[in-house]
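Students often ask why inverse folding is considered easier than folding. One informal answer: many sequences map to the same fold, so there is more than one right answer. In these notes we will look at a single instance of the problem. The structure comes first.
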């Protein structure tokens, strides 16, 4: 009898990205804001700082610093301070992964953008700031070379539907563009919102894979293939969901 190889899951890695300024670009918030523009102010007032995201007990559980049993024993509601905040043990890293702040994620997003012209356009100064952010992270420093310290000066905020400002608080890092070719201008799937969602999916998944390779001491060159089981799907304008993100995620790592 021929032995049948068994496939097993040996380990996993999780990552959380705290990106409050991208919330308004999500599908549901965007539709609600179109109906009620005043929601932008209310939404901004409800966003929480990175320190609260790190100290939120469910987030600490997600990255492996709390067990599910320890979380269940904490007073509820978990979202209401002070019961949800655990500054005494709060760490950005845990057994399963890391909680990334917005500047670091935007730097990873920039490194993930391999198109010319770039989707995420920045000035030279901001490109260098994002490059330095990655260079200072012990796990992500090899990605810093993907961010060239060159770029065009950012012009005044654009009113075009193909340009989304990417900022952290009052710091403007650049603009995210859709496909600006003439034959793509009316294609909703090539809008900045859709392309930002796809690139963010690639960047965040690459963070988790990067962590897994690090924790398991896996040589990336020894991986034969990567399978993506996420709900996202990307492709070109004539093959909407024909391309998964696994190849792009693996290439980045």
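Output (designed amino acids):
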């Amino acid at each position: 009898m021929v032995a049948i190889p068994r496939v097993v899951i040996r380990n996993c890695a999780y990552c959380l990205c705290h990106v409050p300024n991208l919330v308004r670009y999500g599908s549901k918030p965007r539709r609600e804001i179109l109906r009620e523009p005043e929601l932008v102010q209310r939404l901004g007032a409800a966003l929480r700082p990175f320190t609260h995201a790190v100290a939120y007990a469910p987030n600490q559980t997600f990255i492996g610093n709390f067990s599910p049993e320890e979380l269940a024993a904490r007073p509820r509601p978990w979202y209401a301070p002070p019961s949800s905040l655990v500054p005494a043990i709060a760490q950005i890293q845990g057994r399963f992964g890391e909680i990334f702040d917005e500047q670091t994620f935007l730097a990873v997003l920039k490194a993930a953008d391999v198109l010319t012209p770039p989707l995420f356009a920045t000035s030279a100064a901001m490109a260098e700031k994002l490059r330095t952010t990655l260079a200072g992270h012990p796990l992500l420093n090899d990605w810093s070379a993907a961010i060239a310290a060159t770029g065009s000066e950012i012009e005044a905020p654009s009113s075009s539907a193909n340009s989304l400002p990417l900022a952290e608080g009052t710091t403007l890092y650049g603009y995210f563009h859709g496909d600006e070719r003439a034959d793509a201008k009316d294609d909703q799937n090539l809008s900045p919102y859709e392309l930002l969602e796809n690139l963010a999916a690639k960047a965040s998944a690459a963070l988790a894979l990067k962590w897994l390779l690090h924790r398991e001491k896996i040589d990336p060159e020894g991986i034969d293939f990567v399978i993506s089981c996420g709900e996202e799907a990307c492709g070109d304008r004539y093959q909407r969901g024909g391309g998964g993100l696994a190849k792009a995620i693996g290439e980045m790592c």
